[in-house]
Design a protein that fits this description.
By secondary structure, the protein is an all-beta fold. It is built from no helices and eight strands.
Length: about 100
């Protein structure tokens, strides 16, 4: 894959307080400040299926504390952080430096 970044730059990480199962997956990050279409990378989430960490997603904001990613999450997982990324042109690419 030619667009796989080895690092990224973007916003400071925000804490994920919840991930809901379903399609799309709904994520709670209180006061996230994101805009629909932002590209974000998730890290540090444990026990979720499918694995969401270190991938870049384009988000859809639903309100000031919630947004969705276009993934079918069957097991919600816990914890983690999320941050916007720049310098990445495609979504669902792998980031090795978080």
């Amino acid at each position: 894959m030619s667009d796989v970044p080895t690092s990224y730059s973007g916003s400071a990480a925000k804490t994920i307080s919840g991930i809901a199962t379903g399609t799309p997956a709904a994520i709670t990050a209180t006061g996230h400040g994101y805009t629909t279409g932002d590209k974000v990378v998730i890290s540090g989430v444990v026990n979720n299926v499918p694995q969401l960490n270190n991938l870049v997603y384009s988000i859809t904001v639903t309100d000031a504390n919630h947004f969705t990613i276009p993934v079918n999450v069957g097991t919600a997982g816990t914890g983690g952080t999320i941050a916007t990324v720049s310098g990445v042109s495609s979504v669902s690419t792998y980031c090795t430096t978080i």
